[in-house]
Write a structure and sequence with these properties.
The complex is a heterotrimer of chains A (262), B (332) and C (472). Chain A is α/β, with parallel strands linked by helices and 262 residues long. Chain A is built from 7 helices and 15 strands. In chain A, the strands form 3 sheets. Chain A has a 9-stranded mixed beta sheet with strand order 11-10-9-12-8-1-6-7-13, with helices on both faces. Chain A has a two-stranded antiparallel ribbon with strand order 2-5. Chain A has a two-stranded antiparallel sheet with strand order 3-4. By secondary structure, chain B is α/β, with parallel strands linked by helices. Chain B has 2 domains: 182 residues, Rossmann fold, CATH 3.40.50.620; 127 residues, Rossmann fold. Chain B is elongated. Classes of the chains: A alpha/beta (262), B alpha/beta (332), C alpha+beta (472). At the A-B interface, helix 3, helix 4, strand 9, strand 10 and strand 11 of A face helix 3, helix 4, strand 7, strand 9 and strand 10 of B. Chain B: One of its GO terms (molecular function) is flavin adenine dinucleotide binding. Chain B: It comes from Defluviitoga tunisiensis. Chain B: Belongs to the ETF alpha-subunit/FixB family.
Chain lengths: 262, 332, 472
Amino acid sequence: MNIVVLVKQVPSTDNVKIDEKTGTMIRSELESEMNPLDMYAVEEAVRIKEKETGTKITVISMGPLSAEYAIKEAISMGCDEGVLLTDRRYAGADTRATAYTLSQFLKGKEFDLIFAGERATDGETGQVGPMVATLLGIPVLTYVNKIIEITKSAIKVQRAIEGGNEVIQTTLPSLITVVKEINDPRLPNLENKLRAKKSKIHTITNEELKIEEDKIGLKGSPTRVVKVFYPKISRQGEKITIKTPQEAVSKIKNFIKEKGVI
Amino acid sequence: MKQTHTGVWTIAEIEDGSINPVSYELLAWGKGLSERLKVELTSIVLTNKIKDIESLIHYGADKVYYVENDKLEHFYPDTYTNILQQMVEEMKPEIILASATTKGRTLMPCLAASLKTGLTADCTDFEIEEETRRLIQIRPAIGGNVMAKIKTMTNPQMATVRPKSKLPLPKDESRTGEIIKKEFNEEMYQSRYEWINYKRDESIEQPLQQSDVIIAGGKGIRKQENFKYLKEIAERLNGAVGATRAVVDMGWIDYSHQIGLSGKTVSPKLYIAVGISGAVQHIAGMSTSKYIISINKDPEAPIFKVSDLGIVGDATEIVPLLLKELKQGDKK
Amino acid sequence: MKEYNKVTSKIVEKIKKILKNENLLIYQDEENLKSYSNDESGGEYYAHMPELVIKPETKEQISEIVKLCNEENIPITPRGAGSGLAGANIPIYGGIVISLERLNKIIEIDAKNLVAVVEPGVVTNDLCRIVSEKGLYYAGYPMSVETSFIGGNVATNAGGSKVIKYGNTGHHILGLEVVMPDGEIIEYGGKRRKDSSGYNLLHLFIGSEGTLGIFTKIYVNLIPQPGKVVDLLVPFESIEKAIENVAPLMRETKVLPSAIEFIDKESIKYTSKYTGMKLPYQDEVESYLIIQYEGNNLREIEDIYEKSGLTLQKNGAKDVFIADNRTNSEKIWRMRRNWLESLKAIDPYVPTGDVVVPTSKIPEIMAYINEVSKEYKVDIPVAGHAGDGNLHPAPLKPSKVSPEEWKELSEEILGKIAIKAAKMGGAISGEHGIGFIKKELLKQTKEKEYTRMKEIKKILDPNNIMNPGKLF
């Protein structure tokens, strides 16, 4: 079986600061890592490989050269090889341009299953997976929390949807996005870490993919961030510095009573 | 720019024939936008059966297009995408909104990819750009630390909207509007998916989103054990317990209690934020609550900006006392 | 035993005048007083009610109140976050608890001198976080970092997981402002890293557990923040193998880890149940080491874990798991950090021992703990700091034993282990302190030193009003 896992490199901190004037991230010592939610996609792929001999897992990412590291994290969990789509012209891509680039690379390649995380912890859109599937013309199963059965031509999964679980099946090849509950990703061991470190990541630029420039990067992105700002939400509320906890409790009780909320 | 597309669409969600209230929330958003743009607001319904379809008009739609077919009983991304793609290409709306539910967040990327247009996920607010009439889509960005205004350069402009980010408009049964059935030939309903079953899972029932009162804890409660006070207070107020991402990450409480961008959005009647500083990520999940009370030691904590009553004080001193008084109240 | 005077309403009136704010004290309110009657050492077992709790806001208030108590012969118990594990802030003679919770300001972060000046009631983790925003690092890291106060850390000379590289709390303290038992305010040390002018009295106060005075200001040393960390989770088939690795690891890699933690099979069983997480090989191995390294960049980190991992494998590790991102690091440390909590889920008042031995003696003391466990038919999970030979055996109450019996029995069990540790060249407390629970053990194992300690105490606090009943 041929499996593809899509991963993304994300900043490894929650405290990304923004320059409000330019709307860009202040990259002071910004560390990055594989999107934590992609670990579940990688783990699920590796588990299939452990059951099905002859399975090959290819990790694919689009991003700057430094995203090699995220791919190597995936390899250290048991994937076989890595491909990085990297080109200065890919920079600034939104979900559509990203999905388009990924799908152009995948078109014509042999694969049975594509795995992706539910969403990335930086953008939090969760759109690239379903978009890639649509552009490749294959079915997509989102929010999968359990793979029930895979046969030669079909896959049956359980999806975590509002208020419960849905069991549904579709044909292969297809794209699966997984949620946290699906598994407990393994810690990579030294042997796999060293293998990943030595492994050569295939970098592919647009010289090779030859996608029209108006379909990639910022140019190919239908959505634009026009402004980034720290929200100034205000409720003309009352702020009291209390002298005793008792005072606080009285204030709270009065407020509740006054507004009649309970 | 020449106006090629016109009108605002919202995609209604139907569950077993009933309209999911998120559909009315979408209409509230859509109404504001369509009035600004002076265009029609249309609700789109794909279902196998429906009752009370007029309610969409009562909640603000000017028009409803509905497609009714047995094959639409379950959400199959390919069928839904094909039908909607055809409708959009035929009628050319300028804006399409869907809820950021598991269905909306699956359908919309598929549809946007097919329509070769852009899509913005999980919006919490919208504006219309004065000069261009373009839709400004507002959502938390970059781990929820900041908000981003996003504009789509192509048509239609598509977005998913956080459930509970706006209350539905009051129901107005005197409103009238057109309800039009759309029909397609059978091959449009063919799907590569096959639904097997659905099981409700009581354990993932979200009392959080149904509660009128939520008391939520952040790092300022200092230790895991202090959640017991919040739990007891919640019980006494018939409410539920929420938490910030930070304390969930530390393992103090389960993920199901997480409120915020990466957790749940809630809008109870009363939200009590205890020891929560108010990161944008968290505020995104609770700012639509009717009343907000917050307790925090730091007078500069951003949570105070969204609070109706802000108490600068040590949560670990106040909360046990609050519980004690509630208990005494019980005895009386 | 010394007799103390009661806190009369006349005294309370005087204190109210000093504090000028009635809200800074708790009097005759049983429920509220109760939360100042114990710490984390054994819950209700060791609790004693204070007569009065005050929460002063300035050092002057503390000074005047201490003076008053000294004149009126009223015992004082200074208190931090109440997260202590030896009973040092339990008011065993009643009297007044001085809680430092309102002295919680970070007064200054002096980046030019790499010093932070803080009040004792600052939560240690808050200090760590705030200095890290400036690219600086406070290297103290007790396991209770999220709840304990820096003042309490100094008073117990708290340790934690980073002691092997950075030393315990005392290593990071440059100065202290102390309200002495007679009410005088004295500053020892300050913003200086060297001082050979006379006796080093500063370090007399570090680990003094509130018996010599009350801290009102603390000067802490800051260092540059490490750029990146990597954590290794290393399972071993035997405890010996795990411990035998510690010294060679440092010799062969020539790198000092920032942590080498130890956790035994028994402990994993409980933490796994509590956290719902599973560690690789958890049913097959006897123990794990958690090893943390710090480096400036990715390359450095990769070199370190490669060198270290290969050494560990060569020396008998079953496997070596590498966590070099936040998610995986968190996974490993969650098991270690939740150790005590997961035992508390079984027995809310689980007592935790705190013995220290020369590192090479860990297998020997572990074997002894095993013997005691069998002899008393009591489960004793153990976790601790393998890098510095500091272990925490935590006997779990068998269901048949009554709480009253258990208090005695657990003290006997931990006492036996502690004395054995001392005989191996170790000590009966590594980082939790003596409080009042271990004072008999202190007397037994450090006889001559104990006498001199007592003499010092007598000189500085002749009326024995400052945290009486602790240490001695």
